[in-house]
Every structure is written in structure tokens, then in C-alpha cells.
Give the backbone structure.
Amino acid sequence: MSDEIVRTLAEALKSVIDPELGYNIVDIGLVYEVDVKDGYARIVLTTTTPGCPATDYIRQAVETCAAAVPGIGAVDVTMTWQPPWTPDRMSEEAKAHFGVAA
Amino acid sequence: MFGSAVSRWTMLHFGAAISCFLLAQLAMISGLAFPAAPLLAPLTLATVHLLTIGWLTILMLGALHQFVPVITAQGAVARTSALVSVLAILAGLGGMEAGFVALDGVLPAPTILALPAGGALVLGGVVTAAASLGRTLWQTRPLPFPARFVAVGLVFLFAALGLGMLLGLAFSSPDLVRWSGAFTDGLRLHLLAGLIGWFTLTAIGVSYRLLSMFTLAPEERGRLGTAVLVLSAGGLAATWLLGVGEAIGAPVTGGVVTIAAAVTGLGIVLYLLDMLRLYRARRRQKLELNTRMTLPALAALAISIMGVGYAYASDFAEPVVGAVGYLFLFGWLSGLGLSQLYKIVPFLTWLERYGSLLGKQPVPRVQDLVDERRDRPWFALYFAAVAAGAVFAALGWTMLFRVAVLGHLVATLMIVRALWLVRQGAPRAAAPLVRPPSLKAGTQSLFAANPTTTE
């Protein structure tokens, strides 16, 4: 059940985009951790660069989307910039979309 | 609050700056300024200051109010100071323009005093902005690499403005400030501090951060980046201080000044090589229009540096100096400014209009607020017209030069129109919207098939 909620949550987070890149935060690798226990979701996020003016909007959107997932009652979103994000964290689809070189 | 907030007055800065840019181009087309008039004619100086203070300084300060917090990953310290600053600069610029027109004999002679008075108001506005930016930078010590260029740039801004004030007094009140070298030593130091110290060093710092972000290139610039900073900033500081020594009659050997200037030039050449390295190392192969259009601006900088060498060899002949200055202002600084505005304005507009709706309502992507296919030819026209204008200015072909300026005025207007449409907030008609999942209604499949989750 927990794995299923995590999968559903990860899918839900795909509706949140990084506005500069214009691509969902899951596939560009901004979601570092997703954990759900007893209806309590803990999500660790980063941004492509520290100080990004979109940071709070992305965090709030993640909270909203996560809270909308059936079975999740409370959400805790933590921002981190360690380790720093790199394009290597992108999914293969995202890499193909941006033409990210190996 | 984790990210830096949207600076409330940045768009006002951009609007005021663009208005000054358009006015300056109109002045050039109507033959009021170089090359139709001499390089140091009052109306040429009026046009140049419309460009350097009205367009470039206000543009850069507006961008810095937004990007110093991003560069330093800090929140801005003071916000209302940005409004006070831009209003003071605009009022002061108005005074300076009146003073220049009076120097030309169009306005009554006493109006010449508006030149130093306006300069003082501009200085006050800049001090207000720099105090806020400086506080943010101070809190971030040790400064991140790009912010070091900005800090040095702000110091040179004061040097340029201080000297500008002195020059304004020397021109308007020769009895008060007797300076026989005002048009030679003074002007050279003023230009060095303004064009290289303030504009170029600041642009280098901001471009390091923005271009690595936009192209997904490594931010760490290593030894080459350090060499760029040390040589360009150190070389310029030495050139400037030696120049001040010369101006006050200290025994300074001309050869030493030349070496210091060459070191500065080497620093800028290394920056260009580092930009080449940054573009080659970028992970994002498909570039957006703003990062593609940065390349002709960098090329203009490279040609300008070669042009300075040629001007030095030709004993600073006026048409060559004027052509190099024009290419530097319009190709490098204005080209970089316009191309980055094409990204910054949609990004800030997106944050203002759609940021709080993300995850709650359908939102467009930032890149869907512009139409690159529609706007690409205008950027091409802009840079082509500037290249032609530089050639015509160097050859002294005044009429053709004015036609070239008309070309980049039309291009600027079309780019400004694109930015105006962005501000209306209407995404391209065919642009997809990113929709929230509404999972409680059981519609997970809405986004499952498409990695961009667009409809």
C-alpha cells in the first residue's frame, strides 16, 4: 500500500514544473526523496540553482499536489541544496527532451 | 522563504530603460549625434548618456535588484530603495539632458547648471541602489564567483559617476573647477570606469551565472575564471589609478599604463574564451533564443576589443573610436541586454502571474509566453543592423549609418512588442497548459502518459 502511495505521489508531483526549464520536477530530478508513512508524506526537494525565485512556488505546489493524493493526510516538504542538482539527475526522457549530452 | 522574491520594481526599471533606449536611437536617426555630429558634441554626449545612464545603468540596476539575491542565494535587504533609486536617476538624467542641450546653445546658458545638478541626483539614486545591493553582497561573504564581478562593477560605477560629476562641473562652471585635462584624461578615466568597470565587469558576472543556468553548463569556472577576474578587475584598477596619477601630474610612464590596459584586455579575452568553453561544455544542446542571441553580443565584444587595439594603433582617430564605441554599446552591452530581457521578462511575469497557481490551476510554461519563431528574425535584424552601422560609422558614411540605426530601432520595437505581449500574460495560442492532477477525483492518468504533463 505504501509503495503504491509513493508511486501515486511521484506521479502527482509530475504536474509541478520547474518554470525555467518548463519540465516536470520529477523527471528533471529535483525530487530527492519521497517517503510516506501512516498518511504522513515527507518530501525532500531541490531547485536547479540556490536562490531560484521560483523556489517557494515550487515548494507550495508540491505541498498542494501531495495533499491531494488519497491516503495522504499531512505533508512535510524540505528544501535542500546538498548535493547540488546536476543535469545527470534527469530521467532519460528529460535528457532526450533537452538534448542533454552525456 | 527559501528563494529570492520577485523584485517589485524591476519591471519599472526595465520599462524606463527601454524608453531611454528607443529615444537614444531616435536621436541618432535624426542626425543629432555621432557620426552626423562630432563625438564630443553636446548632443552626442546627451545621446550617449541617454544610453549609458537611461538604458544600460537602469537596466542593470533593475536586473541586479532581482539577480543579486539569486547570485548570492539571499533575500533582498531593502525593496523600496529600488523605487527611490530609479526615480532619482530618471529625474537626474532629465537634468543632465537639459544641461547638455544648454551646452549646445538650444536652452539658456544658466540651464547648463542642470548638468552637475542632474549628475548629483543620478549619483544619489545610484548610492541608494548600491547601498541595498551592497548590503546583500556584504551579508554573503565570501562572495560567490559571479558576485565578485558585480561588487567590483559597483565600485567602478561610483568612480564613473564621481568623475562624471567633476566633468559636469568643469564644463558648466569652469571658474569653479579648472581642469585643462577634462576632455582628455578626465574623459578617458570616465569612459574606462563606466564602459569597462561598471558595464562590462557587471555583465561578465551576471552572464557567468545566468548562462550557466540557462545552458546547464558547470558553474565552477576554475583557474580560467579566476584569471578573468584577477586580470580584468586588477588590470582595470591599475590602469585607472595610473590614469588618475597622470591626471594629477604624478610621474607615470606611458608604457606602464599601456601594459595595465593590455592586462585588462587580456582578462576580457580570457572571459570570451571561457564563454566559448562554457557553451561547449553545456549539457543543454537545444538552446533557447536568449542564449543563442548572446553569441553575437559576445562576438561584438571580441570585435570591439580588437577595435580598441586598432584605434590605439591609429592614434584614436575619431571615426574608428566612434565606431568601436557604437559597436560596444549596441552590439555587446545592448545586444546582451535585449537577449537576456527576452528570458528575464517572461520568467518574472510567469512568477507574478502563475507562480502561486502552480499545482492548483492550469498554467503555461515560461517559454510559452514568447514565440521564438516569430521573434528570431528581429534579433537577427538587430545584430545585422548594428554590424552594418559599425562599418558605416568607421567609414564615415553618415546617411547609411542612420539607415542602419533605423534597422535596429525597428528590431528593438518588435522585440519590445514581444515583451509587451508577455506582460499581457497571454501564452501562445497553441501552447499547452500544465494541469494539476486533481487526484482526489481519481484522475491520475491525466499526467501519466506525458512527461511534461501537458494537455
Residues 318-354 of chain B form the longest helix (37 residues). Residues 439-455 of chain B have pLDDT under 50 and may be disordered. Chain B is about 75% helix and 0% strand.
